[in-house]
Specification:
about 180 residues
């Protein structure tokens, strides 16, 4: 007579390993999303700085309508409002992902403009010769840091509120939240 084969028992260590391997694609997706957001911030800052490389009608539109208007200081607010709509609404990580994505875009813009401002400050200090009351000092870097703080605050506020409203709307409808 042959004995029936028993099912092998799964140890808790093996369960943890299988669970962590199932989460690996999600972790990779999050890091890829943040890296793409940072790169988009760098590219956005590059194209805004070098508008003259774009075709003529488009460059005129950007310089006249966007850069010389009141829309540019509110860009972090718009960014924080629109970023949550790029994430699945049923995602459990809607609020952290939208805040992280918005902050990575702002960090990419900051990473592009900080070396330029630092170089411009160094050149103006070199032309000044002897430090005096007429030397402007490090005002460009300080201005970039102020805009960074302003942008981070606006992105945090608007992304948090928009994500919260999306999740609340989803819960009102009774739709399940997925992972």
């Amino acid at each position: 007579m042959s004995r029936p084969m028993r099912k092998p028992q799964i140890t808790p260590e093996r369960r943890r390993l299988v669970h962590s391997l199932r989460r690996l694609p999600t972790i990779i997706q999050v890091f890829a999303r943040l890296a793409v957001a940072f790169t988009c911030g760098l590219l956005l800052a590059f194209f805004v700085t070098h508008v003259d490389m774009l075709p003529s009608p488009f460059a005129q539109f950007i310089t006249s309508a966007l850069l010389n208007s009141s829309l540019l200081p509110l860009f972090p607010l718009y960014l924080g409002v629109f970023v949550p709509f790029t994430i699945q609404r049923r995602n459990k990580l809607l609020i952290p992902l939208s805040i992280g994505t918005g902050l990575c875009v702002i960090a990419g813009i900051y990473a592009y403009y900080l070396p330029l401002a630092s170089q411009a400050d160094a050149m103006s200090n070199g032309q000044c010769g002897v430090p005096s009351a007429y030397c402007r000092g490090q005002f460009r870097v300080a201005l970039i840091n102020i805009f960074l703080c302003y942008g981070v605050a606006l992105v945090l506020l608007s992304a948090n509120l928009t994500s919260f409203m999306l999740q609340r709307n989803l819960k009102k409808r009774g739709a399940p939240v997925s992972s």
